[in-house]
Q: What sequence folds into this?
């Protein structure tokens, strides 16, 4: 398949819709994968607008830099988006598509992402991840139009 930048952009929006549905239905483990994938798609959309040839794979930090995604943002929004992408980058792995809840719980514990959370660490981290990913995809969609 040959992807256009618009295909990645559309996929990002569609994946975010699914991520919100997954959260509403309590499917937090799969949400981790889908929310991160949505951010990756949005960054790939912007990267593809620059050049069809790129090899950042699933590295969100590299995609953020090479995509020039934040170049036209106001300083305060740039800082917020960089923080949101970094948050997603820390919590998301492409391999999460293979995760069980037990494995994801161990991942969160090993990274210290369960500290200070009362109740279900997977659910709370899913909520936080969803907020960050939503912010990135919304800003990407709004910026695309301008």
A:
């Amino acid at each position: 398949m040959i992807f256009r930048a618009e295909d990645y952009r559309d996929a990002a929006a569609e994946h975010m819709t699914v991520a919100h549905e997954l959260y509403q239905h309590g499917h937090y483990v799969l949400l981790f994968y889908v929310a991160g994938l949505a951010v990756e798609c949005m960054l790939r959309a912007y990267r593809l607008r620059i050049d069809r040839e790129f090899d950042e794979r699933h590295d969100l930090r590299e995609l953020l830099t090479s995509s020039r995604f934040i170049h036209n943002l106001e300083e305060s929004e740039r800082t917020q988006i960089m923080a949101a992408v970094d948050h997603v980058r820390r919590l998301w792995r492409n391999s999460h598509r293979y995760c069980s809840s037990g494995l994801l719980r161990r991942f969160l514990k090993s990274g210290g992402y369960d500290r200070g959370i009362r109740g279900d660490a997977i659910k709370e981290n899913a909520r936080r991840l969803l907020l960050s990913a939503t912010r990135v995809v919304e800003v990407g969609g709004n910026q695309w139009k301008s």
